[in-house]
Amino acid sequence: MNFNVEMSAFLVLLFLISLSGAVRKESMVTQKLEVQKHLNRLNKPAVKSIKSPDGDIIDCVHVSHQPSFEHPSFKNHTVQMRPSYHPEGLFKDGKFSSTLKSGSDGSSPIPQLWHLSGKCPEGTIPIRRTKEEDLLRASSIKSYGKKHIKSVPKPRSAEPDLISQNGHQHAIAYVEGGQYYGAKATINVWEPKIQQSNEFSLSQLWILGGDFNSDLNSIEAGWQVSPDLYGDHNTRLFTYWTSDAYQATGCYNLLCTGFIQINNEIAMGATIFPLSSYQGSQYDISILVWKDPKEGNWWMQFGNNYVLGYWPGFLFSNLQDSASMVEWGGEVVNSENDGMHTTTQMGSGHFPGEGFGKASYFRNIQVVDGSNNLRPPQDVGIYTEDDNCYTVQLGNNGDWGNYFYYGGPGRNEKCP
Q1: What pLDDT tens digit does each residue of the chain (416 aa) get?
Q2: Which residues are within 8 A (CB) of 96 and not within 5 positions of it... i.e. 6 or more apart?
Q3: CA 32, 65, 239, 177 torsion: positive or negative?
Q4: 59 in the Ramachandran plot: left (φ > 0), alpha (ψ -120 to 50) or beta?
Q5: Which of 5, 8, 380, 415 has a CA that sits 20 to 30 A from residue 300's CA?
Q6: Where along the chain do its domains lie?
Q7: Could you give phi then psi for residue 167, rounded to 5 degrees?
Q8: 262: helix, strand or coil
Q9: Coil, strand, or helix at residue 266?
Q10: What stretches of 12-139 adopt beta strand conformation (E)?
Q11: Rounded to an integer, what distance in angstroms lies between the CA atom of residue 223 and that of residue 230?
Q12: For the CA atoms of the chain, what is the radius of gyration?
């Protein structure tokens, strides 16, 4: 009798193990199918593919075949191949160069690393190919390429979770209370050290409208180091947008419907090259975002020469007319849960007081006014959650206009 009971229990156990294995196998097959489906949605047939020295594959995809056009809202969208208007007042001489500065040896720098291996033909756009491992690093396929909620600094009334040890931390300059039709900055480019893969460090500008808690509209662009998103520690050009405070809309780069790219030379999410070094050569990039007053689209320019594309005006509610706030600066994720602050660096990883060649900077920060002119911002404020970890130092002079140094090392003797 006991033998029969034990044998029955054993057979039941074997059945449950077998069933569990079958469920796991079915789940893995389902996941693989979902991953492949998403890859097919992101990776379009290429006219040409280029292998970058950093391992990226850059696909040259016809402009009309980019991912955004799969969405029903873009079904009848006609691509605007150039902006109707361009902001006036850009600094264009050598002193105010909006492209990467030349190296110390006088050589002309290459804006992105993949340019060493080739270029995309006219009529195509370069798209960084998404790999299976990129999707598998994400917490879910649905969340791939998306920011976490509440990653924008709210200077006047910061929420408790932004000030806590866990969460996003910032060192920014900002203006608010006016009507802003765009913004510009020249940003020093570094490769900050990231403590763990689920953290990132970025430097960007934010163009904002709406309520921070519910219907925030945000257009963002800059450089970032994000191991989770890209699978490495390279410094990369990025964009982001949301129309509902990061809840359901928006994404990085071209990883969802939204940004329409027209440029065949610069790839969103690709490695920037070369980079600044401590007490060595300094390199910076220029980013301009502005609203086309005729068509209502928000355009992005990289350097003096690369008009990259636009976010269609219909994506937004609170940016339909203008922005109510502009922010420039750095952001990191502090995910430490042992009570100690992360050692993830912001900017160069050095405090602003160290100055040029050591600290990271934003120079020639400007806003676009209602007459489509670039102007110096008025009444610039600064904001950080903890000055001992990362901080900001404003300045103004004839060469750099309105500028600031920012950043820091994270954990140190004053930021344990």
Answers
A1: 566 767 777 777 777 776 666 656 656 667 788 999 999 999 999 999 999 999 999 999 999 999 888 888 888 899 999 999 999 875 543 333 334 454 433 345 678 999 999 999 999 999 999 999 999 999 889 899 998 766 678 786 444 334 443 588 999 999 999 999 999 999 999 999 999 999 999 999 999 999 888 899 999 999 999 999 999 999 999 999 999 999 999 999 999 999 999 999 999 999 999 999 999 999 999 999 999 999 999 999 999 889 999 999 999 999 999 999 999 999 999 987 777 999 999 999 999 999 999 999 999 999 999 999 999 999 999 999 999 999 999 999 999 999 999 999 999 999 99
A2: 186, 364, 399
A3: negative
A4: beta
A5: 380
A6: 1-42, 48-407
A7: 130, -165
A8: coil
A9: coil
A10: 48-51, 57-62, 124-128
A11: 13
A12: 23
Residues of 367-388 as b/e, b for ≥16 C-beta within 10 angstroms? bbbeebebeebeebebbbbbeb
**pTM (global) more than 0.90:** no
Strand ranges across the sheet with 217-225 = 236-242, 217-225, 201-209, 323-334, 167-180, 381-384
Using DSSP, state whether 192 is helix, strand or coil.
coil
Backbone torsions φ then ψ of 352, nearest 5 degrees: -55, -35
Q: Which residues carry out catalysis? A: 220, 331
Residue 111, token pair as written in the block: 């804006």
Read off the amino acid at residue 16.
Answer: L
